[in-house]
Amino acid sequence: MLDVLIKGGTVVDGSGAPGRPADVAIAGDRVVAVEPLPAAGAARVIDATGLAVAPGFIDMHSHADFVLPGLPTADSKVHQGFTLEVVGNCGASPAPLSPLGRQDVIDTSALVVPPLEWDWRAGVSPTSPRSAGPRRPRP
Predict the structure, then answer these.
(1) Is 23 exposed, middle or buried (0-12, 13-18, 19+ CB in 10 A)?
(2) Phi-psi region of 8 (alpha: psi -120 to 50; beta: other; left: phi over 0)
(3) How many domains does the chain contain in total?
(4) 91 and 79, same structural domain?
């Protein structure tokens, strides 16, 4: 038996094709079918009639570099449908945090809420791809 069945929605899959009527079947943590499943049952059935059903969105330019370490569950983004954020693409990322640029980064992020601990050397989140922001050497 399926764990979750999302029935009656319009699936928009990101391929560029028009949305199509389909049900989405989930077993465990996997999508196992995306097609009309009129006879399928599940432990939980979600009626998506009149709604769009889509995979998670990718935020390619989020400026969440300083937010994710303090709020790692990123609830506000998940509620909007984002499942991946790319950070560090503006040159002011907190990671990798080198000794040379450490104080500059700390000073420029003084208004971040919640305040960060600054006790890491590299990495923000194992699920957040990031570009390493450039660092200018201090004189």
Answers:
(1) buried
(2) left
(3) 2
(4) yes
Q: Are residues 93 and 135 in the same domain?
A: yes
75 three-state secondary structure: helix
* 128 and 88 share one domain: yes
φ, ψ of residue 75 to 5 degrees: the values are: -55, -40
Are the C-beta atoms of 20 and 10 separated by less than 8 Å? yes
Q: Give the pLDDT of residue 64.
A: 81
Longest distance between any two alpha carbons in the chain, whole Å? 70
Distances in Å between the Cα of 14 and the Cα atoms of 20, 36, 48, 49 are 12, 18, 18, 19
Per-residue pLDDT at 92: 66
Q: Do both 108 and 137 map to the same domain? A: yes
Q: Which neighbouring-strand residues pair with 11? A: 20, 53
Averaged pLDDT in 10-residue chunks for the chain of 139 residues: 95 92 95 95 96 90 79 86 82 72 77 68 48 41
C-alpha to C-alpha distance for 10 and 18, rounded to whole angstroms: 9
- Residue numbers of the domain that contains 119: 56-139
